[in-house]
Amino acid sequence: MDLGIKGKTALVCAASKGLGRGCAEALAEAGVNLVINARGAEALEGTAAHIRATYGVNVTTVAADITTDEGRAAVLAKADGADILVTNAGGPPPGVWSDWSRDDFIKALDGNMLAPIALMQALLPGMIARNWGRVVNITSGSVKAPIPQLGLSNAARTGLTGFVAGTARQVAPHGVTINNLLPGIHDTDRATSLDTGVAEAQGIDMDAARKQREATIPARRYGTPAEFGAACAFLCSDKAGFIVGQNLLLDGGAINATI
User: Fold this and answer.
1) What does the pLDDT look like over 12-33, one tens digit per residue?
2) Which of 134, 128, 185 is nearest to 164 (CA)?
3) Is the pTM of this model over 0.90?
4) pLDDT of 33-67, one tens digit each?
5) How far apart are CA 128 and CA 182, in angstroms?
6) Above 90 in pLDDT, residue 93?
7) Which of 28, 33, 113, 187 has CB atoms 3.0–4.6 Å from 160's, for a disulfide?
8) Interval 135-191: pLDDT, tens
9) Cβ 229 vs Cβ 32: under 8 Å
10) Of all helices (H) and strands (E), which one includes residue 108?
11) Integer angstrom CA distances of residue 161 from 128, 140, 180, 198, 245
12) Which residues pair with 177 in a beta bridge?
């Protein structure tokens, strides 16, 4: 399918690996030029080289922490005029409700709510002026079904979801859509980290830990960055202009809900 976005420019955050890279590659395959960001310069440059060689699009890299004012300024200096924004940032650490301080919550909000909001505030005016734009926020299935040990993430990402719900309706008349992708477990470094914790806690090997988690997913497997990226690219396409303010789960059916 021709997504109708060849030649447009996208800013994709945390794009050196995992779900962010999956989104960047899917957009590049559709002919979109990229500004990609991550904290680690080496991995970022490796990803950029692969995308350039494979898809033949322009790729600009900015190694910076997107959750800081300085990092966002550096990224936005290269991404001014972007037609597409894909926000993404690693979540705060797990813990217990009684252990979290105000500073812990502020850090979580800065990373997973206020940073994507700041990026939208910077890029939405240009999209509105051009009467076309796409924003996709990578959040988490936890905004639909909270994960107890991830209370900081639950709070921050749900706050972002509330912001998007209202803002998406305000910008839609200008040909700009904002939607959220809610990942479950995908085959990324994050899944490896979680499986390592389970393996160590239960005294089992990594393969057993993975199979144990896969058994909780109706699809009986982890998702892949490529299929996640494909969903992102569709939401960024000219075919998705009537999808506004939605939260799309990509979790293999793990969250048991009717709506």
Assistant:
1) 999 999 999 999 999 999 999 9
2) 134
3) yes
4) 999 999 999 999 999 999 999 999 999 999 999 99
5) 25
6) no
7) 113
8) 999 999 999 999 898 999 999 999 999 999 999 999 999 999 999 999 999 999 888
9) no
10) helix 102-109
11) 21, 10, 8, 29, 9
12) 134
For residues 5 and 27, give the distance between their C-alpha atoms in angstroms, rounded to a whole number. Answer: 8
Confidence at residue 189, expressed as pLDDT on a 0 to 100 scale: 87
- Going by DSSP bridges, is the β-strand pair 133-138/84-87 parallel, antiparallel, or unpaired? parallel
Place of tokens 């939405």: 124
Q: Give the span between the Cα atoms of 223 and 80, in whole angstroms.
A: 32
Which tokens hold the place of 123? 């890029």
Provide the pLDDT for residue 45: 98
Query: Are 173 and 244 in contact, with CB atoms under 8 Å apart?
Result: no
What does the buried/exposed string (b/e) look like for 68-96 if buried means 16 or more CB atoms within 10 Å of the residue's CB?
Answer: eeebbebbbeebeebbbbbbbbebbeeee
Count helices and strands in the chain by DSSP H and E runs: 9, 7
Distance CA 223, CA 141 (A): 13
Phi, psi of 116 (to 5 degrees): -65, -35
Mark out the alpha helices in the chain (DSSP H runs): 18-29, 41-55, 69-79, 102-109, 115-130, 151-171, 189-202, 206-214, 225-235
pLDDT higher than 90, residue 11: yes
Specify the 3-state DSSP secondary structure of 33: strand
CA atoms within a 13 Å half-sphere pointing along the CA-CB vector of 238: 12
pLDDT of residue 94: 85
- And the tokens for 127? 């999209």
Cα distance between residue 142 and residue 125, in whole Å: 30
Q: What CA–CA distance (Å, rounded) separates 125 from 55?
A: 29
